[in-house]
Amino acid sequence: TQLLEQSPQFLSIQEGENLTVYCNSSSVFSSLQWYRQEPGEGPVLLVTVVTGGEVKKLKRLTFQFGDARKDSSLHITAAQPGDTGLYLCAGVNNDMRFGAGTRLTVKP
Amino acid sequence: DSGVTQTPKHLITATGQRVTLRCSPRSGDLSVYWYQQSLDQGLQFLIQYYNGEERAKGNILERFSAQQFPDLHSELNLSSLELGDSALYFCASSVLGGANVLTFGAGSRLTVL
């Protein structure tokens, strides 16, 4: 059983569409991170959210940390083929635990 | 290039064998983390070292062991290999001992036949 549940597991959309992926847990985290992983590479950090209710924007990506610091969402506006990859969330307390990820495919 | 170096990139071996995976952390980073990534289990935390000392332990099997050397490089030893050990093994490093920003290597892909 994953400490962090990510949904959906797979998502395939057309270029230009919007999407939201979710990261949920019953545990409270001191912070939560989102990573993107491309084939043949390790995960790369996108953002860290620390405060409950915090919203961070990174160009077309919007990250939100839940008020109770148990969940998070990632919204992508006008998705592009370059957004294709595995999106992982990681909950941070004394250590860091990852969800299983959402595998996003954006078709041209 | 993330600055974290993992070798070998690919490794194919047989059941019952033993392998060693090597990781050189990013310059200046004192912490090394090992993760196992398989299709059905996602990224599973195995173990963390900070400045040569074990700091945290995750779902690491007794057949697996790791250490961090004085020059801060780390090795993950996998023994009595089973088919289910086939996976990507990632090393990540960070500056501090507490969980913070991790920089990942490109991974070592282990195939057990």
Please outline the helices and strands:
The complex is a heterodimer of chains A (108) and B (113).
Chain A: E1 5-7, E2 10-14, E3 19-24, E4 31-37, E5 44-49, E6 55-58, E7 61-65, E8 71-76, E9 85-92, E10 96-98, E11 102-107
Parallel strand pairs in A: 2-11
Antiparallel strand pairs in A: 1-3, 3-8, 4-5, 4-9, 6-7, 7-8, 9-10, 9-11
Chain B: E1 5-7, E2 10-13, E3 19-24, E4 31-38, E5 42-50, E6 53-57, E7 64-68, E8 74-78, E9 87-94, E10 103-104, E11 108-112
Parallel strand pairs in B: 2-11
Antiparallel strand pairs in B: 1-3, 3-8, 4-5, 4-9, 5-6, 7-8, 9-10, 9-11
Write down the Rg of chain B.
13 Å
First-last Cα distance of chain B: 30 Å
Low-confidence stretches of chain B: none
Strand content of chain A: over 45%
Helix and strand string of chain A, N-terminal first? EEEEEEEEEEE
Proportion in helices of chain B:
under 10%
Oligomer: heterodimer
Low-confidence stretches of chain A: none
Percent strand of chain B equals over 45%
Would you kindly provide a written description of the structure presented here, covering whatever features stand out?
The complex is a heterodimer of chains A (108) and B (113). The mean pLDDT of chain A is 94. Chain A has 108 residues and is mainly β. In chain A, a hairpin with a 6-residue loop joins strand 4 and strand 5. Chain A is globular. Helix content of chain A is 0%, strand content 55%. By secondary structure, chain B is mainly β. The mean pLDDT of chain B is 93. The A-B interface holds A 2, 33, 40-45, 48, 88, 92-101 and B 2, 4, 33, 35, 41-45, 48, 56, 58, 90, 92, 98-107.
